Amino acid sequence: MLIVISITFIAALSLSLVLTPLAARTALRVGLVDRPSRHRAGGSRVVPRAGGYPLAIGVWGAIGVMALFSESTRRMLEHRPELLGALIAAGLVMFILGAIDDLRDLTPKLKLAVQLLVAAGVLAAGLGFDRITLLDLPMIHLGWLAAPITVMWIVGVTNAMNLIDGVDGLALTTTALISAAIGFIAYQQGNTGAAAMAAALTGSSFGVLRSNFAPAKVFLGDAGSLFAGSSLAVLSLGVSAKGAVAGSMLIPVLLLGYPILDTLLVMLRRWLSGKSILSGDQGHIHHRMLERGMKHSQITIVLAVFTMMLCYLGVCIAAGSAYLSTLGLILVGAFVFIGSRVLGYPSHLSVRKLRRWSPRFRAVRYQSRLACVDMELAGDLDGAFSVLQRVGKLYGVARFTILLPPGDADNGAARPAPRRRIVMSFDNATARLGARHAGWHHDVYRDAASGFAVRTLVPCDTVEREYQLECRIAVGRVLRAMARRLRDLDRSPGEATYDDNTDTTAGAATHTGKPGEAA
Questions:
Q1: What CA–CA distance (Å, rounded) separates 450 from 111?
Q2: Does the first or last residue of the chain, that is N or C, have fewer Cβ atoms within 10 Å of its Cβ?
Q3: 293: left (phi over 0), alpha (psi -120 to 50) or beta
Q4: Of 376, 352, 321, nearest to 469 (Cα)?
Q5: pLDDT tens-digit series, residues 217-247
Q6: Rounded distance, CA 159 to CA 61, Å?
Q7: How do 140-141 and 131-132 pair as beta strands?
Q8: φ/ψ (deg, to 5) at 100
């Protein structure tokens, strides 16, 4: 059986090696090339996006040729017909979906709908998670949760592999290593059919990788990344349904740990920043490595080492070796700890950042929006001042120093000199903070069109710094609303500008950020 699996690997490798240059030349002729300004990280070359074609043909061709000429291969594949059918059908639909998306951009909702249908088809074929086991802990039966978890797994892994395809060779290297680990585990479990399929995907990935590694002569494209992701998702379900760890989600999660971790970190960062988790950005792990001056080849090698560590840990757990599993866990933990410190993730995903989305912080933003509405409804200058006075007491401002334009801005009269200076003091702000404040924040807001300017004085507390920053952002939002209201009352159009001047007393805490900008 091992000889048949090896021949399958060689057949897929040979097919993809031969077809990749042909696919690249054909793509250049028909204009199927990468747009440098799209999602690709750090690239400006015109490169054909045709790597998915030899990748898929290499897998299907190797399996078809071996099944046609080898009786033992047919017996191996007939051992898991549902896995073979799901692998071919899911891969074909995802490949077509990606190929169409490469030619003409499809909407995310349409692609998600097709992926959900594919996942439902795989589930209907009899593949899926039905229980969770973790080492020697009691087994947990998923029950009715098995179906949604399986669908989420297939869709999530497919898109995760698509998202990491931003650096030359990264997606294919990850695919080759994970599929090799899946094939090894399947062979150890006696699941030779899954092992042969994984060998075909591994060989085809290595064949295309020769032209995809930095500097890439051909890109994988959505056709290739979606095909690779769906194939890995289906194969991982195949190895999770056999052996001593039957139904366990632990091994597939470990094998696909890097693309899953990258996707979760990106979604968490988007959520913390108030963006849609489905929006595109430059915040993936490979983007952060590029920002630190690493080359495409270096990034691919480093992340390949991380993937190898995760695959090693998954293989050890599947083999039931407690000593080797512990060693692998230590290696993975050390790599994650060092990598997160180097890439600066603790500062971006800190407890403080998470607190910004607590009910306390949400209340600050909600109250500021209500104050902005009241400011827009103010009928004269006195009404605007009453709203501003309420805001000062609400957000802990110690003093407002307001510089109004000459004349009566509320009745449209002429503007004689001098400009009027009004001071609003709030003793409750300093008393509430007590002796804990380490200094003062001075923020200046100006509206050049109307001449409106405000200087705010806010006590700086080293303990409540994140909360105070949110309050200063809210104050800036209200002051900009007041500047707009003054222009409306004076019938003077213009745009508000913000200047950040910081004057702190000796020993004051450092002020960072521009509260007025975060509307």
A1: 50
A2: C
A3: left
A4: 352
A5: 899 889 999 999 999 999 988 776 443 343 4
A6: 25
A7: antiparallel
A8: -65, -40
